[in-house]
UniProtKB/TrEMBL annotation:
Lineage: Bacteria, Pseudomonadati, Pseudomonadota, Alphaproteobacteria, Acetobacterales
InterPro entries linked to this entry: CRISPR-assoc_prot_Cse2, Cse2_sf
TM stretches of this protein: none
Domain of life: Bacteria
Coiled coil: none
Protein name listed in UniProt: Type I-E CRISPR-associated protein Cse2/CasB
Xref: Gene3D superfamilies: CRISPR-associated protein Cse2
Pfam families: CRISPR_Cse2
Length: 198
């Protein structure tokens, strides 16, 4: 897709969809190796220590413009930077399960017994407590690395967009956290038994 085509198409799409397209264009779809032109961008983004470092990267202004985000919409600019920064760590898309289910315990147990969870309950609680964009960046960057850089891209992008507790967006932030808690503790066997008819 040409840059001009992506920009005109982006005007009709939610920024999260534009960011997903941006991410897909960074990697070869077969080998999952970064495309030659995207390696420098990915390297710069991975070296960012905080969201402001992402905002001053040349790739950010380009993506924010493609997303249709205006420069007087500070919260949306921070959202684009957050998603962009975390997605620079993602290598592959595994769309079958929600990310919280992937990192949660495999069987229904108490919090003290959740030793088989990829993300232990204490770390999960820290993820839930991340509120600012910098806290979210650190927590989700660690999570992506913990998951071996293979995530459900749709779920991650949508979650990142709604995770920060910006003024006026607290209900949305709480809603996404509740969804993650539910998926984290919902075991596959529980979901399967819940779908059976009696």
């Amino acid at each position: 897709m040409t840059e001009k085509a992506m920009t005109s198409q982006a005007k009709q799409m939610h920024p999260t969809k534009v960011i997903k397209l941006w991410w897909k264009e960074l990697y070869d779809p077969v080998s999952e190796i970064p495309m030659p032109g995207s390696r420098a961008t990915l390297a710069r983004l991975r070296h960012c220590k905080r969201i402001f470092d992402v905002v001053i990267d040349p790739a950010f202004a380009d993506l924010a413009q493609k997303c249709g985000v205006k420069f007087d919409h500070n919260h949306d600019l921070n959202r684009v930077a957050l998603v962009m920064a975390v997605m620079s760590y993602v290598r592959s898309d595994i769309p079958d399960k929600k990310n919280a289910r992937i990192i949660g315990p495999t069987k229904q147990v108490s919090e003290d017994e959740a030793s088989d969870a990829l993300c232990k309950p204490l770390r999960f609680r820290q993820l839930l407590g991340a509120s600012t964009v910098d806290e979210c960046y650190r927590a989700f960057r660690q999570l992506v690395n913990l998951m071996g850089r293979a995530v459900n891209v749709d779920d991650l992008v949508n979650s990142l967009w709604n995770w920060p507790r910006f003024p006026g967006a607290e209900k949305t932030a709480d809603k996404i956290r509740i969804e993650w808690v539910y998926n984290y503790w919902s075991t596959d066997s529980e979901n399967a038994s819940g779908n059976k008819t009696s």
